Amino acid sequence: MIGLDMGRLTAVARKEVREYRRTPFIIGAMTVLPFFFMVEPVLTIFAIGTTVKSASVAKGVGVTFLLLLIVPAIIPATVAAYSVVGERDQGTLEPLLTTPVRRGEILIGKALACVVPSVGIAYFLFALVVVLAHFFAQNPIVVTTLTDGSHILAQALFAPLLAIWSIGVGTAVSARASDVRIAQQLGTMASLPPLAVTALVAFQIVPIGVWTAVGFGLGLLVIDIAMWRVVAAMFDRERLITGSRAARRVGAAAAPAGTVRRIQGYGGADHGRGDT
Amino acid sequence: MAREPLTDGAAPALVVSHLTKRFGDRTAFEDVSFEVARGEVFGFLGPNGAGKTTTVRTLGTLIAPTSGSAVVAGIPLSAATGAEIRQLISVMPENPGLYLRLTVQENLELFAGLYGLASAGPRIAHALEVVNLERRSRDLCRSLSKGLRQRVGLARALLSDPTIMFLDEPTSGLDPVAAREVHELIDGLRQRGVTVFLTTHRLEEAERLCDRVAILNTRLRIIGRPNELRARLFRGALEVETAAPLPTPETVFNDEAGVEEWHAQGTASYVLSVTDPRGAAPKVTRALVAAGADVVSIAEARHSLEDVYLQLVDEDPEAGG
User: Fold this and answer.
1) What ipTM score was computed for the predicted complex, to two decimals?
2) Which of B60, B67, B111 sits opposite A255 (nearest CB)?
3) Cα–Cα 20 to 30 A to B19, which of A88, B33, B36, B180?
4) How far is CA A87 from CA A19, A92, A157, B225, B265, in A?
């Protein structure tokens, strides 16, 4: 990931955005799905009567909070699952990989094109729910709870971190899958586990507070970093093109007598030094 | 193993030495060695599964070789030099691999960005001009015919002004008109001094376009100029046609006429094996006239590259895989 060229990174991100804009499935995933996930939270908080105690209000808001975080978890996985297998389907993967672009630039460019709109949508939905609650919620404690600093902080931190996980896992599945639909189904399923962390907060198993939010945010960050290290290792040119990393598995012992030395820098010990 | 050093003094664009690639137990290609001079159009032929595409992918740094070495555009092939090599080459796979939801212009903008090209606009305009697609720049690629997509693929390959262009079956699936257009583009590349590494199944294409060809069937079978390959594999021959069958051809086609062997081909046609077709033709003509034959035609038998290819592939037990 060292030595990223911003021009190449931007070129990848711009291409992704242009493709998204012209892919009905992705447009649908980014517009219809978020509002589908917003219906339940809105109904939940609207249904909270004026006589309901603050503890119950907090519980209702917690469910809302969790449902809203499904958006940055699921949408990017659906989109990212298309990213590599879609290139392979179109036959564009090989031309892309024969350019000087480095894997870090491809991965970050693709991730940026996905994470920015996903997080933007997540923030917009949260703001929309707050505005709707302000005008239509029966119980004023709902708005107070929703706009509590720790809730906003948690939403602000968790949405991008969940999206980054989701894109990573979606890309990883996409790199290994041979079919777009399977990649999207697996990617969506694999994007959900980190929601367990936010569920602890949402269901008040762990009381929400600024430090809780920061602590859980750091936890998600660690998981994200680990995931992206795995994705980077999986994003190997040979594996993407041929489905195997034969050169690194086939050692000198496999070469018949008479063939010359192994290429310096391609051996297992050198794996990872060169940018593939 | 054929290996033909080039003698024009310039450093070769490509030096491949004992290169081998295996996928587990399967050998894609083995012990392949050759050189390609700068500005040369080099044909890489072979049956399906011979390892042509894998060779291109290896030299294009997509796949790591199992053993051997290569120098591509002056840079030794290794994992560490991949990006550096890719900056100097361009590869057009058999499927041009365009982003069909993007326009022609957007496709080229992407690749200009990936090659880090300054002043991408003029470069894109020039590349489109070379392939005669200026008026289609705003069309979505999915609306283009296969021939036009191939031309966009070539424009993309030209963008970075590469030292070496690898063209993998560039006319595969194209109709004759579109294929001819691609041939003209490759001719244009030769005139511009671009080194072209062309893999193809079309032998007439290789014969027409390539300075030298290599025939691969897991191992490199032969390499050289098409004329040299013909001379290496086939003896000289004359094809003679007379107005009527000769009553005693054995008395005409003899040592004095320079004929080593002969056989009839049809009723009044004969194929004569000779050491020097140009020297033997006047002697054979005189012998025919002296024998009272009416000569319809006498010409040197031309073996095509296809004959060379079939001769080599037929005698190879692994052919056709």
Assistant:
1) 0.79
2) B67
3) A88
4) 11, 5, 31, 39, 55
